[in-house]
Amino acid sequence: MDGEANHYCPNESNCPPQIKGKIEHFISRKAMDIESLGEGKVKLLFDKGYVQNIGDLYDLKYKKNDLINLETINVFEGDDDIEKIPIEKVLFAFSYGKVSLKEARRLVDSCNSISDLVGLLKFDLTSCNPNRYKSASFISLLNEDGSILSKISAINRFYLYLDEVIELFGIHNVTKEVSQQLAHRFKNVYSFSKADFFHINNEINNNIRDFIRDNGFDFFRKLNTFNVISFQQKTVDNIISGIEESKQKPFEKVLFGLGIRYVGATVASNLAKTFRTIDNLINARIEELTEADEIGIKIAESLTRYFGNAQNTSLIRKLGRSGLKFSYEQSNLNSTILEGKSIVVSGKFENFSRDELKQIVIENGGKNVSSVSMKTSFILAGENMGPEKYKKAQKFNIQIISIEDFVALINQ
DNA sequence: TCGTGGCGAGGAGCTCGAAT
DNA sequence: ATTCGAGCTCCTCGCCACGA
């Protein structure tokens, strides 16, 4: 879109990054706040076909046993350095458990050049007491096939590219071309499991198949170029209970979670209060929408576009059947002491979270705002309030009050 | 058992642009 | 012209899983 920093993919319902982004938005703190799920786990669940849209999250409880022990090596998209592997990780991976990553790092740190390192690996450590230096047995392993050391020496860098590591890895059978093919293939998958790993290698070269089948996955795991994401019992329990608890979230949070363009937390809250139910909102015409507080033509058009898509309305029906709230529940005001006041909450508080304080503001008739302006009534400041907010408060002469003063004000 | 490392939670600031 | 929310990035710290 012209003049905009953000580009919206027109292929909304079939573009994987956009679908994953919508799921991430839905589970985020400001929306449904589903604990223990985040970017990495959402991507794994999506890539493995467990979650194709936000509605599928509510079916995960039926697949609990499939999720436990689900594991992937996760390649982050757009990471330019993904191919560069520090030499200590290469040594760690080649040691097949004989040397720790920490120990490999210590070895590398003690060297100023690759020839120092090769020298150290070739001579010094083999004479050490193996109990003091676990590396010793590893070094003798490297020495059995001098070509590993000589190749590292020839490369003369403290990092290797992925294809160079693969070339070292399958040292007797892998050609330069095959290692480049493999490196390219790994770079261009987002995540893969042990089964995917065998599949890739079977495709490429039968000669190295057996070797990789026995050692490959663990080797790449050790290389740590890829992040390992795994679902253990505790994680799965936390995710399932987080998803169940999200059914208690009020309508405005659900509405925000749908990820409709221009509908953030505040707009969602206004819409929920004004239209009361999802059906009223779906059926509202543009002119009815723009009559609502702070809703202009852009937001109204965005809403009608969203609700005009049958996939979106069927998703909403599915979420409704799962037990999510799609009608507004009026919260009882504790007082009207903050009526007409715009309040900024900033910093850390010992006994309250910021969200709790914002809820207290609403329950007492006040309005939460996120940035300081001349219209701000006061700032409720905890430890380490934003320095820019402080500057603006000084500039506009806005009162800054402590949590103690705020509590006293509410309890008047 | 303890150290390590990644993910997620919770906080911040900044820019852009919609609403008024 | 001004206000302030949306949408983004960045930072720190605690939790969890894994390996030595």
Tell me roughly what share of residues is in helical segments: 40-55%
Query: What oligomeric state do the depicted chains represent?
Result: single chain
State the low-pLDDT regions, or none. 1-10, 75-82, 124-138, 188-192
The structure class reads alpha/beta
> How far apart, in Å, are the first and last alpha carbons?
52 Å
Number of strands: 9
**Spatial shape:** extended
Tell me the fraction of residues in β-strands, as a range: 5-15%
Put simply, the count of helices is 22
Query: What kind of sheet is the major sheet?
Result: 4 strands, parallel
Radius of gyration: 28 Å
Whole-number total of structural domains: 4
Give the overall average pLDDT.
69
Lateral strand order in the biggest sheet: 7-6-8-9
Question: What would you say this structure looks like, in words?
Answer:
It is a single chain. By secondary structure, the chain is α/β, with parallel strands linked by helices. The protein folds into four domains: 16-70 and 232-247, DNA polymerase, domain 1, CATH 1.10.150.20; 84-224, no CATH class; 251-322, DNA polymerase, domain 1 (Orthogonal Bundle), CATH 1.10.150.20; 342-410, Rossmann fold, CATH 3.40.50. It has 22 helices and nine strands. The chain has a four-stranded parallel sheet with strand order 7-6-8-9. Strands 4-1-5 form a three-stranded antiparallel sheet. Strands 2-3 form a two-stranded antiparallel ribbon. The protein binds a DNA duplex (20 and 20 nucleotides) through helix 2, helix 5, strand 5, helix 13 and helix 15.
